[in-house]
TrEMBL record:
Domain Glycosyl hydrolase family 13 catalytic stretches: 30-426
Name listed for the protein in its UniProt record: Glycosyl hydrolase family 13 catalytic domain-containing protein
Family: Belongs to the glycosyl hydrolase 13 family.
An example molecular function term from Gene Ontology annotations: glucan 1,4-alpha-maltotriohydrolase activity
Organism: Penicillium cosmopolitanum
GO BP: maltose catabolic process; sucrose catabolic process
């Protein structure tokens, strides 16, 4: 090795802020089983349907497939209410189907990640049936039971005023034993009592079972909610129309969270497993770092919600918010820099089964801009520091549910409960109801749950049977579907594949490199640089639907002068176009310039 080479290498190693890991170099595709592919015509997606699409997923270039819950469940919350962790929800298939799926995933060089929902179970789980049966049952202490409170006039109240995420109080009174149980979500989703070591052992056993079966890790549902402040204090009520506020202060990253996560982490480490924890209601990266700092060996990475909550209004998710690029810049940059500087790791996502579609929220649904803005978002997201997650349909630019949809067409209990509560509380307020419907169309969870658009046939070729899908298809599938995109080299699908390939080609730069925000005050463009050793990439994304003239800032001029174009979402872009003093960016234009090795 020559002297210069050694020098470069030492510098590169020096700039490796955090340890290497296979899961940092991977990307993930999330499947929502009910809506992915129906193989037997009953209107519900299933495991065999997924198996039939493995080559499609492989062609995208991802490394990991994460499935939303497939365990046995009464489906009050689409499987996030598990009644048996060792059995499969029958409409999805059998244990043998899952074994076949894992085999198929592995045969293609990919890995399977399971959704583990253990903050709560279904109320139909045998543990809860036992627990509620009597105060002396051995499972009583597996859940969180408390005595009622009574006002002076003898009216019964829940033990505290925490609200459920799905409307109303987070406690339900059980006549049988005259106590309340806690459920941060639906009343059919009682929270497990993690203070009880036997509960934790039961969770560990489930993890080992699935790891032994060939799962390569877990997505851990609301995992930062598992440790509750045992005093269970009230939350001050600030808005009288909402008597049951969110109690997150007393359970999001609660007192014993890291003790519990370390126990999970030691199992994950044994298997060199992947892990991503879902961590809502925490916006301080320092809190999340405690779980994802590389050396602590708790979790690999976490889904933080600061980007997802960016267009929520002052009265919550379904009140009008105001998305501004400058907020996105500050949030993204905060997490990018913080995790890099502190040996943590980011999970990168703009969509999942709980969110509106990113083109509808942050791009444009207009026909002339839909594909362009989808590719722009792919460029913007896919080249950041962290592990990228693509949610089914995102890779073909699926958008939110049609404007013509009435509330009757919705299936999700969060939206339905919210709507019922609101319309009962404010009868006749058509203005508020209209506004709320508009916000639900932007942000409600059903947006991401419409059947995957495979082709132009009936039911978008999601299902071949005569039974209509469990939730209606979107209107646009004849022109907007996977089969036309796979064969079109200029499609969003193939663009995404190109972005993921860039991460594989320049692993050091795009996976391990640093992040710097460029031209912070620009209101239309999101520009950032990635740097590793002698290699620099500048990622430019126009978030507006206007032409934007951009004078290339001094700090990246040398990259533009000597660099080459790696990728761009307008086909005609030329290297010479970027080498002047200023560039004219077209609507939603995005491109990447690279200099160095
Ligand atoms: C997570 C899931 C969501 C579910 C909730 C309760 O946020 O992503 O779908 O409703 O947890 O399990
Ligand atoms: Ca089916």
């Amino acid at each position: 090795m020559s002297g210069t080479e050694t020098q470069v290498q030492t510098r590169s190693q020096h700039q490796l802020a955090s340890g290497r890991a296979w899961w940092k170099e991977s990307s993930v595709y999330q499947i929502y089983p009910a809506s992915f592919k129906d193989s037997n015509g009953d209107g519900i997606g299933d495991i065999q349907g997924i198996i039939s699409k493995l080559d499609y997923i492989k062609a995208l270039g991802v490394d990991i497939i994460w499935l939303s819950p497939i365990s046995q469940s009464p489906q009050v919350d689409m499987g996030y209410d598990v009644s048996d962790y060792y059995a499969i929800h029958p409409p999805y298939g059998t244990l043998e189907d899952v074994e076949m799926l894992i085999k198929g995933i592995r045969a293609r060089g990919m890995k399977y990640v399971m959704d583990l929902v253990v903050n709560h179970t279904s109320d139909q789980h045998e543990w809860f049936k036992q627990s509620r049966s009597s105060k002396t049952n051995e499972f009583r202490d597996w859940y969180i039971w408390k005595k009622p409170r009574y006002t002076a006039d003898g009216v019964r109240h829940p033990p505290n005023n925490w609200g459920s995420y799905f409307s109303g109080p987070a406690w339900t009174y059980d006549e049988q034993t005259e106590e309340y149980y806690l459920h941060l979500f639906a009343s059919e989703q009682p929270d497990l009592n993690w203070e009880n070591p036997i509960v934790r052992e039961a969770v560990h056993k489930i993890m080992r079972y699935w790891l032994d079966k060939g799962a390569s890790g877990f997505r851990l549902d609301v995992i930062n909610f598992i440790s509750k402040d045992q005093r269970f204090p009230d939350i001050p009520v600030t808005d009288p129309s909402r008597p049951y506020p969110e109690g997150a202060k007393y359970y999001a990253c609660g007192p014993r969270i890291h003790e519990y996560l370390q126990e999970l982490g030691s199992i994950l480490k044994e298997y060199d497993a992947f892990s991503v924890g879902e961590m809502p209601s925490v916006y301080d990266p320092k809190e999340i770092l405690k779980a994802v700092e590389f050396e602590r060996q708790e979790l690999g990475m976490a889904f933080q919600f600061e980007i997802m909550d960016i267009d929520h209004g002052p009265q919550g998710k379904f009140s009008p918010g105001n998305f501004q690029l400058k907020n996105l810049k500050s949030v993204v940059s905060k997490w990018q820099s913080f995790m890099y500087d502190n040996n943590g790791w980011n999970a990168l996502y703009l969509e999942n089964h709980d969110q509106g579609r990113s083109i509808s929220r942050f791009g444009s649904e207009k026909p002339e801009f839909r594909s362009l803005s989808g590719k722009m978002l792919a460029t913007f997201l896919g080249l950041q520091s962290g592990t990228p997650f693509i949610y089914q349909g995102q890779e073909i630019g699926m958008t939110n549910l049609p404007e013509t949809w009435k509330v009757e067409k919705l299936r999700d209990l969060e939206a339905i409960n919210f709507w019922n509560e609101l319309t009962q509380r404010t009868p006749g307020d058509t203005k508020l109801h209209g506004q709320t419907m508009k916000e639900m169309r932007l942000k409600c969870r059903d947006n991401g749950r419409l059947p995957m658009q495979w082709g132009p046939g009936k039911f978008a070729d999601f299902s071949s049977g005569s039974t209509a899908p469990w939730i209606d298809t979107n209107d646009d599938y004849e022109n907007w579907n996977a089969s036309s995109q796979v064969s079109d080299s200029s499609s969003i699908f193939n663009y995404w594949a190109g972005i993921l390939k860039l991460r594989k080609t320049w692993v050091d730069l795009f996976v391990y490199g640093s992040y710097t925000l460029v031209d912070e005050s620009n209101d239309d463009l999101f520009v950032y640089a990635r740097l590793f050793g002698e290699s620099t990439a500048v990622v430019v994304s126009n978030f507006s639907e206007e032409n934007v003239k951009w004078s290339i800032p001094a700090d990246v001029k040398s990259v533009f002068a000597a660099g080459k174009l790696l990728v761009g979402n307008y086909e005609e872009l030329q290297v010479t176009d970027i080498q002047g003093e200023a560039i004219m960016l077209r609507p939603f234009e995005a491109f990447v310039v690279h200099k160095g090795e």
